[in-house]
Amino acid sequence: SGPLTEKSQNLIKLGIATGATSRGGVMSQTRKAINNGATKEEINQVILLSLSTIGFPNMIAALNWAGEVLEKEDE
After folding, report:
1. Which DSSP helix (H) or strand (E) runs through 7?
2. Which DSSP string corresponds to 9-62?
3. pLDDT (tens digit per residue) in 31-53
């Protein structure tokens, strides 16, 4: 409980999972964020913000993991 919406919590957790380079965490939080109303653009922005902190290869890995989930959602 708290003042943050469920969507905001999922996006924050997505950022944490991205920083931890956790494939399962990124995919899980991407699904949860979508289910709580997050857009593809919001999800991508959260991951793109990690670039300066975790580096290009790890950020691209997280984008690909989230992309797998987003592709399934589009089907």
Report:
1. helix 6-19
2. HHHHHHHHHHHTT-HHHHHHHHHHHHHTT--HHHHHHHHHTTHHHH-HHHHHHH
3. 999 999 999 999 999 999 999 99
